[in-house]
């Protein structure tokens, strides 16, 4: 594990780019200055927000309605996986025959989108994890590309963004219901960022921030900088064992996380 503060590297060999403002909503007051642009990809659930109790209620409701079984999302290791994969695993745990699950899987996904949106509380302030909004706000003042990747569907993300007003910080989002793996989402994110900026994003130019060991494993496939936060169901011990570049208890001290991101600038020269 790298020290969060102590290691300093020279920026002498780093490339510099003249960057225009690409944001759709964020105020990038530093646009136009020469920076080493990064692609920073955030996970959503239990990294930035924690609506798992809502996910649990919706899952319980729909599995009872469609399969007549009692089931909760938190009965399985859901972190860092798509809704499709989690539903399939939960169906196996509850001994739901594969053919019956497949027959009703589309109805399950569509019902989930509708029910989740209706189940969100009016006041969502307490569901935004400490430091998340502040970190996104700080990053929005840079010229980095901020993206979201999540196992959720587009409609669930839209519902969360409407409720929390976090959507303004992201240039684009990738969804687990539309691809096979998390690596596919990262690959698409890199392609999108390169199209937007006409810049290549390789190795430590890509930063993944998430709460699961699967985020760390995914980042390693791209030699990306991995920043783990112990705000989800995977413990600090589990996260540490997966070998992230940086590990934080949470995002509360967002300036430290910013410094970890800047360490990626140093390492990628």
Tally of separate helices? 9
| Assigned CATH architecture of the largest domain | 3-Layer(aba) Sandwich
CATH class of the largest domain: Alpha Beta
Q: What share of the residues lie within helices?
A: 40-55%
- Strand line-up across the major sheet: 5-4-3-6-7-8
Ordered list of secondary-structure elements with their pairings:
Layout (H helix, E strand, L loop, with lengths): L16 E2 L15 E2 L3 E4 L9 H16 L15 H11 L4 H22 L12 H8 L5 E6 L3 H11 L7 E4 L6 H16 L8 E5 L2 H9 L3 E5 L6 H7 L3 E3 L5 H14 L2
Parallel strand pairs: 3-4, 3-6, 4-5, 6-7, 7-8
Antiparallel strand pairs: 1-2
Question: What does it look like?
Answer:
- The protein has 269 residues and is of the alpha/beta class.
- The chain has two domains: 175 residues, Rossmann fold (3-Layer(aba) Sandwich), CATH 3.40.50.1000; 68 residues, DNA polymerase, domain 1, CATH 1.10.150.
- It contains nine helices and eight strands.
- It has a six-stranded parallel sheet, sandwiched between helices. It has a two-stranded antiparallel sheet with strand order 1-2.
- Helix 4 packs across helix 9.
- The N terminus is likely disordered.
Brief characterization of the structure:
With 269 residues, the chain is of the alpha/beta class. The protein has nine helices and eight strands.
């Amino acid at each position: 594990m790298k020290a969060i503060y102590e290691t300093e590297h020279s920026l002498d060999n780093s490339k510099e780019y003249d960057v225009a403002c690409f944001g759709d909503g964020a105020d990038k007051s530093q646009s136009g200055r020469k920076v080493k642009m990064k692609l920073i990809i955030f996970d959503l659930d239990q990294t930035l927000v924690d609506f798992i109790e809502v996910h649990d209620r919706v899952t319980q409701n729909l599995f009872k309605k469609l399969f007549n079984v009692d089931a909760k999302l938190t009965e399985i290791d859901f972190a860092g996986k798509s809704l499709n994969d989690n539903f399939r695993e939960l169906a196996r745990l509850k001994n739901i025959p594969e053919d019956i699950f497949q027959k009703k899987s589309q109805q399950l996904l569509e019902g989930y989108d509708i029910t989740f949106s209706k189940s969100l509380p009016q006041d969502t302030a307490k569901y935004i994890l400490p430091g998340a909004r502040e970190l996104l706000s700080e990053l929005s003042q840079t010229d980095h590309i901020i993206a979201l990747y999540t196992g959720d569907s587009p409609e669930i993300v839209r519902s969360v963004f409407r409720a929390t007003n976090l959507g303004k910080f992201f240039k684009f989002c990738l969804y687990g219901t539309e691809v096979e793996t998390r690596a596919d989402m990262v690959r698409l994110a890199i392609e999108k960022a390169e199209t937007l900026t006409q810049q290549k994003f390789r190795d430590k130019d890509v930063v993944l921030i998430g709460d699961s060991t699967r985020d760390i494993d995914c980042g390693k496939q791209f030699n990306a900088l991995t920043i783990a936060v112990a705000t989800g169901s995977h413990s600090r011990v589990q996260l540490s064992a997966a070998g992230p570049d940086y590990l934080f208890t949470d995002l509360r001290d967002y300036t430290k996380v910013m410094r970890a991101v800047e360490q990626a600038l140093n390492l990628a020269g």
